[in-house]
Amino acid sequence: MNQKVGGRFWKTAQRGLLSCLRGLIRAILSLAAGIPLFVLSVVSIALIPVGVGLVLAPLALTGVRLFADLQRVWAAEWSGVPVPSPYRPLPARGPLRRLRGMLADPATWRDLLWTLLNAPVGLLLNLLPLAMVVYGLEGVVVASWLGQVAGYGWGPFWPLGDWGVVGVAGCLVLGALLTQAGLRWGPHILKGYALFVQSLLAPTRGALQERVRRLTETRADTVDASAAELRRIERDLHDGAQARLVALSMNIGLAEELMKQNPEAAQELLAEARAASGQALTELRDLVRGIHPPVLAERGLDGAVQALALSLPLPVDVRIDVPGRAEAPVESAAYFAVAEMLANVVKHSGAQRAWVQIEHDGDRLLMLVGDDGTGGADPGRGSGMRGIERRLAAFDGTMAVTSPPGGPTVVTMELPCALSSPRTSPS
Predict the structure, then answer these.
(1) So where are the chain's domains?
(2) CA 210 to each of CA 86, 171, 199, 263, 335: distance values in angstroms, whole numbers, following the listed order
(3) How far apart (Å, rounded) are the C-alpha atoms in residues 24 and 136?
(4) What CA–CA distance (Å, rounded) separates 57 from 101?
């Protein structure tokens, strides 16, 4: 029994001391990082009209986001309070576009408000467990004995008159209770701070509702696109390979009947059957390639896009820097997006050359497809681009088309994703 009580005491003490250490780290960062970042952000935003802020503001706001993201991670890992990231996707290129995206994001201003309020609130809540423990230990270890030696008439907790047995006992008891309270309630106090972080740094109700609405729309678009894809596959099978296989079966049956009576006619039917089987096999391969190309599964997005570029009737410059493999659905969506854009280049652009650039910047896959054609591409006029836009939206992806009359055309597509495994060279 005593061992169980002792074990619980040491576990409580360990958790409490760990909370004190974590609170001290947070309190130091609240002052050392939070206040300078807030001041720098406000000053840099104010200096945007004179040009200096165009350089400083993105750096300062990025620092605020990194500081806020660190608090989100700590809130989840240390206190079990999840704080999802509320930021909107930023353009991958162009410092002015990224700055405009930051300033238009409501989460940026909530970050700044949190940084300002975090200085007093974070300092108070994060230092409170450590202060309780230190002050309690001071009452137990230092204050009572110091009172005995110096002859003070006041204890650290309340006036006890002349120091004696009662005063010493009071200091010891109250100090022990305060120390125990700090150790026991330290994790709960830090959880209260994590809830404060969640209240300002988590997505708002409006943002969550917008997210739900967006997911509902993309899910409906995905279901419609999947149904249309299934109908296309059924139609291609019925009108193509299935019809050829039926004709192949009939020709083989006729050849069996004519084998004895008219061998030459039977040989002609068998030759037709062989040709029909080759065509049916080709159509089946094309159908499978349209569902999920085998080269994509074997060689990844890099090899599949390289093979696709070699099959086109115009030169395509391909540059890919993706040091890993994305999940299969994301990789498939990226491949078919690039394939559709290149198909549009061949069919409609009148281009002499095209280029594809794919890279991964840490949390998203960036794909750019361009050509030197006549321009004037409009996503609203063609079903192909709209279909790709819906397909990317199912993964929170985006597509932007820049195609002035006379060209060039550049299609920028982004897919949020993480790389699950390192890229391997094809054998």
Answers:
(1) 2-201, 215-291, 295-416
(2) 12, 57, 18, 72, 29
(3) 17
(4) 12
CA–CA separation, 303 and 423 (whole Å): 11
Q: What percent of the chain has pLDDT over 70?
A: 75
C-alpha 219/C-alpha 217 separation (Å) is: 5
Centre a 10 Å sphere on the Cβ of residue 148 and count the other Cβ atoms it contains. Answer: 14
Tens-digit pLDDT profile for residues 246-305 = 777 777 777 777 777 777 777 777 777 777 777 777 666 665 555 566 777 778 888 888
Rounded CA separation 266/256 (Å): 7
**Which amino acid, one-letter code, is at 204?**
T
Say what the pTM is: 0.55
Which tens digits make up the pLDDT trace of 139-171?
777 665 655 555 444 444 444 444 455 566 667
The count of other CB atoms within 10 Å of the CB of residue 188 is: 11
Q: Give the contacts of 423 (CB within 8 A, at least 6 positions apart).
A: 300, 302, 322, 323, 324, 325
Are 111 and 65 within 8 A, CB to CB?
yes
Quote the CATH superfamily of domain 295-416. Histidine kinase-like ATPase, C-terminal domain (3.30.565.10)
3-state SS class at 279: helix
